[in-house]
Design goal:
Length: 173
């Protein structure tokens, strides 16, 4: 699927969705009770940018902004961006020690009432199986042994999360 087809597919999905591009549509939205009543939840921000683990999740952008700390760090640590770019971190992001069940146990122990993993950050790397994402990755499922969000969703569901369980988050009870 090329970029034009991908954009068309996304626009069609947006058009079928519950919202229109106006404030009135958003005002009509009702926040789910599990979120309102939860009081304490965990949002997981995890992705390729954790490989260099420098500055913040905007590393994919800032490493190309001359005179930024990330730019300087990148050149000093990995060499010039022309020879080692952000895409070169992708094969290093293997999640080898990731254990979704251990995460669920930790979140429950902490008292979290819901968990919302971020499925895709602004770097465009999808943490889920996606037909038009991860253009630079190719074999991500094999790289991860399976997609981290699918493993999280399975662990959350197995832990007894009710109907709101899935890739967009789960209630931890």
């Amino acid at each position: 699927m090329d970029i034009v087809e991908s954009q068309s597919t996304m626009q069609q999905a947006i058009a079928r969705g519950p919202f229109e591009a106006n404030w009135e549509a958003l005002k009509a939205y009702t926040v789910p009770n599990w979120y309102v009543d939860g009081k304490f939840g965990i949002f997981i921000h995890w992705g390729v940018y954790t490989v260099p683990a420098f500055d913040n999740e905007w590393y994919s952008r800032n490493m190309y902004v001359q005179d930024s700390l990330a730019f300087k760090h990148h050149v000093e640590t990995y060499g010039p961006q022309t020879t080692f770019g952000y895409k070169d971190f992708i094969p290093m992001f293997k999640a080898e020690q990731f254990d979704a069940d251990a995460w669920v146990a930790l979140f429950k122990q902490a008292g979290a009432k819901f968990v919302v993993p971020v499925a895709e950050h602004h770097d465009g790397f999808a943490m889920y199986d996606c037909s038009f994402g991860n253009v630079l990755c190719g074999r991500c499922a094999a790289q991860f042994r399976s997609y981290p969000l699918a493993r999280c969703a399975g662990a959350f569901c197995a832990a007894g999360a009710p109907g709101e369980c899935g890739l967009l988050g789960a209630v931890v009870r």
